[in-house]
Prior knowledge:
Number of domains: 3
Strand content: 5-15%
Number of strands: 3
Low-confidence stretches: 195-203
Largest sheet: 3 strands, antiparallel
Strand order of the largest sheet: 1-2-3
Number of helices: 7
Helix content: 25-40%
Radius of gyration: 21 Å
Amino acid sequence: MFASVPYKIMHSFHIPVYEEMKKRDADLYDRLEKAGFMLDFGDDGSGLFMKYLRRGSGYYIDVGASELVANGSIKLKSSVTIERINPKSVTLTDGTELPADLIVYATGYGSMNHWLADLVSPEVADRVGKVWGLGSNTTKDPGPWEGELRNMWKPTNQKQLWIHGGNLHQSRHYSQFLSLQLKARYEGLDTPVYGQAAVHHLR
Length: 203
């Protein structure tokens, strides 16, 4: 069912779901915001999964920490950065000094394009272009509209370079299509390379 919905209209299926979640969990969201947790439901209210497809970031899947933040067990300091690390504390950009026995520098993860620059070369990364995202003109997903995820599971502008990723569902589903495209090339059934803004479908 998921794979049958075109990306162009997928967000419209998600918006009513998140509207209902806002109602059902209103108390939790209110307490999180009061505790300094910066939350939103995406530029158009379509929520977590569209953020995942559009930018691959900007979301948190609650596995128990949200209630700990909401009830004050975990303290947050938002909209500031570290200005200085002291022998036994950190000073934030708003002047606050927090005692610290341990600092965990949680950097998250970068784009696959950056990995290409590191693993292959910056020239190849530039040739391939942006990886992931739909061109939806939302935060961190600039246009033009692509129709499918950029440079995923299809030919790239770098000959013989293919990129595979995504969650378990996507890996299971799209690995078949990627392998069929590779098989076609081994059999001499080549197709044009995908342009940066072109939309192609394997049939």
